Model the fold of this input.
Amino acid sequence: MTSPDLIDSATAESEGVSSVEESNFRDRAVSEYSPKGTARTGFSYFRFSYKDGSRTVSIHIPGGNVRSANAQSRAIEVRAKIAAGMPPEEIVKAIRKMSLCYHDSCPGVIGS
Done:
């Protein structure tokens, strides 16, 4: 089993994925989603998605719905980590730290 990763050019080549598809996946790594089933609130939330082998894994980015300033700043922070080339495992750890605290004095929260 391969380690979790955003699709890079070596993986893309070996899997027959074009650089356009690689770019599209990176652009969609942080996306909005709406809960389905019994949790139909009408709100959308942010999530981070990455490839683990052939499987796509998604993790909720905490902070409220997409209209919340807190959620928006956390999505921007995750996008910055992606742009900096941080591996998905580290991004997931950072997202999990975000969910431990909801005030500014906690580590891993923007502004601390």
